[in-house]
Write a structure and sequence with these properties.
By secondary structure, the chain is of the alpha+beta class. Helix content is 24%, strand content 25%. It has 9 helices and 21 strands. The protein has helices spanning 64-76, 80-88, 101-109, 179-189, 191-200, 220-224, 234-246, 287-296, 317-330; strands at 23-27, 36-37, 47-48, 50-56, 90-93, 114-115, 133-134, 144-147, 159-166, 174-178, 202-209, 254-259, 262-269, 272-274, 281-283, 305-309, 332-334, 341-345, 349-353, 364-371, 377-378. Strands 1, 4, 5, 6, 7, 9, 18 and 20 form an 8-stranded mixed sheet that branches. Strands 8-19-10-17 form a 4-stranded antiparallel sheet. A hairpin with a 2-residue loop joins β12 and β13 (262-269). It is globular and about 65 Å long. The two termini are 37 Å apart.
Length: 393
């Protein structure tokens, strides 16, 4: 498949904000277990995450208003922070005066992105501040392996903010890896698999039930029932749910079947997409995560999502295992410090969650999801390979 691949150009690391001359963000190094140099197709010496901390003149105290003014100023100057995300995939902010969900929300909104509406949510995420919810409340023993956010549905966020409100003493790291590097490695090492993904795409079957299916999971009403009112009969409820499903805008490439206790939704989706502005192919997927999670988490959330090739044939396990092998080799584990903020470009960077020791409450990470100006591009010309914005509703 012929495709134009542009070079990701490096940018200056000086991040002073014109509107806030008293504050700048300076890069700093992390231990090798927490930060790595990215391989092809990245320019040499590109690290992830790019770690930034506030630098004030005369060592003055950093306040949140100045941080927000600086972020807004940087974004007004050619979207400098967005350019950093395009280059590095993930940013880490450390040492900011952020102590709760409300302050985290203000910081995240300063980037100027549009809040993402999750259609068909599969986990329970109650809002606790504007566009802020718990990242994932599955039990602490559960592994959540590297994945792009919402690869099982058509409507996925472009930017993800995580705030570490409380960090466990041992475990609970957030894995970070590059979807661009994963594609590049997979194309070299398992080219037949990549060719099949490009030709067929994937069928993603997601099961939703009236009651939640596992601890931390969502219900059918949480997924699609925002318009359901008390007193609606079954016919009305189903009609309202189907209206929400149609907002995906995928036409014949999204179908559903009602069951006695819920429904099964089937999407034909592209697992290979392209990054806006660079046209670099990215493996936007949770395939390795479904493979690894099923083996590590006996009974935790099995069979909620099933993914096949787009023609309905199974994906050989050897390919899933190889994706996991590559991911293990290119990922780092972010060891949280309280107050840390990670920002992901979800199109090109994958995240996850390691189990931890101690109490469930020892790790509290909040999330805020946003849409970008453009959806990912298509890797090919098939109708099912086009990514579209969800319809308003």
């Amino acid at each position: 498949m012929a495709i134009s691949i542009n070079t990701l150009e490096p940018h200056s690391l000086k991040l002073d904000g014109a509107a806030s001359p008293s504050l700048a963000f300076e890069p700093f190094n992390l231990p090798p277990s927490n930060q790595c140099t990215l391989g092809a197709p990245y320019p040499s010496d590109t690290v992830t995450p790019l770690a930034l901390r506030p630098l004030t003149h005369n060592n003055t105290r950093v306040d949140l208003d100045t941080v927000i003014e600086t972020i807004k100023s940087l974004q007004a100057r050619d979207n400098i922070m967005t350019q950093k995300l395009t280059r590095h995939g993930t940013l880490l902010f450390r040492g900011l005066p952020i102590h709760n969900a409300e302050e985290f929300s203000k910081f995240a909104h300063a980037f100027g992105y549009k809040p993402h509406e999750i259609i068909g949510i599969v986990v329970d995420r109650p809002l606790i501040a504007p566009n802020v919810a718990p990242a994932n409340e599955a039990p602490k023993e559960v592994l959540i392996y590297n994945h792009n956010e919402s690869p099982q549905v058509p409507h996925a966020p472009e930017y993800i903010f995580f705030y570490g409100h409380r960090a466990p003493a041992k475990g609970g790291e957030t894995p970070i890896s590059s979807s661009l590097e994963l594609f590049h490695r997979a194309q070299q090492e398992i080219p037949k698999f990549i060719a099949e993904l490009a030709e067929k795409g994937i069928l993603s079957r997601v099961t939703y039930k009236v009651d939640k299916q596992y601890e931390g999971g969502s219900t059918l009403k949480q997924a699609f029932g925002k318009e359901i009112q008390e007193g609606d009969d079954e016919v009305t409820k189903r009609a309202k749910i189907e209206t929400q499903i149609k907002r995906y805008g995928r036409g014949k490439y999204t179908t559903w079947e009602w069951t006695d206790d819920g429904l099964v939704l089937t999407h034909r989706l592209p697992a290979i997409r392209t990054q806006p502005n660079t046209n670099l192919p990215t493996l936007f997927t949770g395939l390795a995560a479904y493979y690894k999670n099923a083996r590590a988490n006996s009974g935790a959330s099995r069979n909620i999502v099933q993914q096949l090739f787009g023609d309905g044939t199974p994906i050989p396990e050897k390919y899933l295992a190889h994706l996991a092998k590559i991911t293990d080799e290119i990922r780092v584990l972010h060891k949280w410090q309280e107050g840390d903020i990670l920002v992901f470009d979800n199109i090109i960077a994958q995240h996850g969650r390691q189990p931890w020791e101690g109490e469930q409450s020892d790790r509290v990470v909040l999330a805020s999801l946003f849409d970008g100006e453009n959806v990912p591009g298509a890797y090919g010309s098939a109708d099912w390979g086009q990514v579209v914005q969800a319809l308003d509703g």
